Structures are given as structure tokens and as C-alpha cells.
Amino acid sequence: MVGLSACGSSDSGGSESDGSGSKTVTLVAHDSWAVSKNVLAAFEKQSGYKVRVLEDGDAGQAVNKAILTKDNPQGDVFFGVDNTLLSRALDNGLFQSYEPKGSDLILPEYRADQDQHRVTPIDTGDICVNYDKAYFSEHKLAPPSSFDDLVKPAYKDLLVTENASTSSPGLGFLLGTAAKYGDDGWEGYWKKLKANGVKVVDGWEQAYNEEFSGSAGGKKAKADRPLVVSYASSPPAEVIYGDPKPTTAPTGVATGTCFRQVEYAGLLSNAKNTEGGKALLDFLLTKEFQEDMPLNMFVYPVREAAQVPEEFTKYGPQAKDPETMDPAKIADNRDDWVKSWTSLVLK
Q1: Coil, strand or helix: which one is 293?
Q2: Is the model's pLDDT at 212 over the cut of 50?
């Protein structure tokens, strides 16, 4: 998902007996979940619940596992299902209905499932190709700015992306190309991308921190791909967590390659601690949590009037004209597109 994984992740805490009377509430999330300790501690003190966090891989992997374990879930609340996978979660009965306090303050463009309130939007961000500024400067090559650029010979063997069948950003990038080139054009585009040497890995962590030459992790790993599918908010993460801290972001965003992502949370259908789960969902919409997210998970809040830190907007502004797709269209086509993509790109 977003930002740098495990930054400020909460303690797991001690587990108590199951049941609605338990004072431990378990949040199942992808690996990029993070919250400031003082913000979480304030919620635990106010609510009386101890939060246990179970990180379960990339968002795509976490959703698949949650569906497989839905009859005996690993926790009470699931965070991190996004608009690319939402219909899969809802069609499989992953969540029960609950409308958290503060839902009326969610910006209208991010609301979903308004009839049943099985999920609540928590954050938004843009999946985009990032580039290594130093590489393109050294090679006196302009970085790509659009989907069209990525298939040009000048960028051969430079891009790494995630597997669309296992990774949320990988799927988002695929949907971005489908939105851009249409039902009849996206496969032809991917044929060109494959011929131009795109590399596919399982998930974001591997792509960004092991294969991408522009990230701090990639530099240590001597990575050789200066283009990666990541997020518009990845550059500020490189600045904020840089050691030493750079004065400008070492990475940039190809703004013509972005796809708008919205992440949701919901009360799991067979949650053992439903009351604790409801309290936790209420917390995720509070002003305190919403304003804490940008510098922890490198996403934008969805609550009206929630403030975003200056360094976040300076280095990771939202895309002005990202590709989008109606959730119903994603639901109707996602599985077929992923199957065709797998056959086309991985075989």
C-alpha cells in the first residue's frame, strides 16, 4: 500500500479472552498500517480497549486471507480493502453493517456502500509510477510523464511493477491502463510494455525497497530499476525518513500514470468483539486519527477539514487528473482482466 511499511506501527498488546466483553480489539491490516503511539494510546485510554494489530501482507494478500478465514476471522476490524478489491470483499460477505460516528463528515466523493454501511472510507491516495531523479539526470534523459511514455524505447528495461493478481498497487496500475486505453486497448498496451522489458514482482515491498534504485532500500540493495509503480505520496516519505534528511525529494512522480485509490475499513462479519470493533471504527474517523495518517501511512484523509502537514503536500501532492473507474465496472471486469493480464504478461 502506501508509504513505508512498519513506520510507527503499534504494539500488539496482550490478548485477553474472546467475546464481546473482551477489552482487547484486534485490527487486521496490510503491512503499511501505522499510527502514532500517542494517538493510539489516547484512544485506548479513552475507550478502555487495548488495540492488537495483525499485519497480514500486501493489501491484496490480506483481503484474500480475510475472505478465506471469514467464518472464523483473525480479528474484529479489517483495514485496507480498497476500491480495486471492494466488490470482492462485499460479494463474499466479509463485513457486517455499521455506520461509525463521524460518517457524515466524510467527503462525498469518497463515500461508498451507502445503503448498507458495510465499509467506511478511511483514506485516499494515488497509485503512480515513481522515478529516480538521479538516474535520469545522470543519463541526461527526461523522466516519463505518461502511460504512453513508458512503452517508448528510451525507457526499455527500466520499469518494475507489482503482480496485479496479488498486489493492490499492481492491480491499481492495471486498472489505470484499462481506464486510459479502454476495454479494447489495454491488452495491446501491455504487450508493448512487456516488449519494453517491464519487470513484475509479487508485491510493493519488493518492488519499491528491493528493485527501485530511487528508494533508500533500493540504494542499499543496489537496485537497477529507476521506475516503479508506487504512490504519489512516496516522495515525501523519502524526505521525511531520509538519513541524512535530503532537502528535496530524490524521487518524482509521473503524473500522467496515476490511478485514484480509496481505502476502507469494516467490522468483520463474525467478529468476536463487535463493540470494541465499533469503537475502533469510530476512532478511525476522528480528526486526531485522520490528521495523523499522512505522515504515518502517507495517504490523504477523507474527513472534511482534516489538515495535511506542509511537507506532505509539498513533496506528495494529489494528482490533479488521475484515472478513475466506477466500482461497478471494476466489479464486472476485474477478475477477467487479471486473468487476461496474467496470461499476457507472466506467461
Answers
A1: coil
A2: yes
| Long-range contacts from 105-112, C-beta under 8 angstroms, 24+ separation | 105/285, 105/303, 105/304, 105/305, 106/285, 106/302, 106/303, 106/304, 107/302, 107/303, 107/304, 110/262, 110/302, 112/83, 112/86, 112/262, 112/264, 112/327
Nearest to 61 by CA among 184, 203, 225, 173: 203
Please list the residues that pair with 229 across neighbouring strands: 129
pLDDT at 15: 38
Nearest to 120 by CA among 104, 144, 138: 104
Binned at pLDDT 50, 70 and 90, residue 20 comes out as low
Q: Are 66 and 30 in contact (CB under 8 A)?
A: no
Calpha distance 210→160 (Å, rounded):
10
Q: Tell me the pLDDT band of 10, cut-offs 50, 70 and 90.
A: very low
How many whole angstroms separate alpha carbon 83 and alpha carbon 222? 34
Local structure of 206: helix, strand or coil: helix
What is the spatial distance between Cα 318 and Cα 153, in angstroms, rounded to a whole number?
A: 29
Confidence of residue 160 (pLDDT cuts 50, 70, 90): very high
| pLDDT one-digit tens code per residue, 26-45 | 999 998 899 999 999 999 99
Segments in the chain forming alpha helices (H): 37-47, 59-68, 86-91, 133-138, 147-150, 168-181, 186-195, 204-206, 216-220, 234-240, 274-284, 287-292, 294-297, 310-315, 327-341
Mean pLDDT lowest among 121-125, 165-169, 199-203, 204-208: 165-169
13 has a pLDDT exceeding 70: no
From residue 267, alpha-carbon distances to 39, 77, 79, 113 in Å are 21, 5, 9, 14
**Three-class secondary structure of residue 160 per DSSP:** strand
Exposed/middle/buried for residue 92 (C-beta within 10 Å: 0-12, 13-18, 19+): middle
Nearest to 228 by CA among 249, 214, 239: 214
